[in-house]
Design a protein that fits this description.
three-stranded parallel sheet, single chain, 76 residues
């Protein structure tokens, strides 16, 4: 799905917990997530720290979305 959306001219960021799978499916902009059961957060953190984790991931994804890439790129 990611490749088809990009083929239509819309940039896509694949936020994922298992980067090798994203590489296998051909995603161009890849942002590693936190963990499989909680990809966009950590419920063991207090609310303020969890908000920082989530904000950091969203900012990485927005940065990836606005970055021109040539081929697959993992945004650490």
């Amino acid at each position: 799905m990611v490749k088809e959306i990009e083929r239509a001219g819309i940039p896509v960021v694949h936020v994922c917990t298992v980067v090798p799978i994203s590489l296998t499916v051909g995603a161009n902009r890849i942002v590693p997530a936190v963990a499989i059961p909680h990809p966009l957060g950590n419920p063991n953190l207090d609310a303020g720290e969890e908000k920082k984790v989530r904000r950091n991931l969203v900012m990485k994804a927005l940065n990836a979305l606005t970055t021109e890439v040539h081929g697959q790129t993992v945004f650490e």
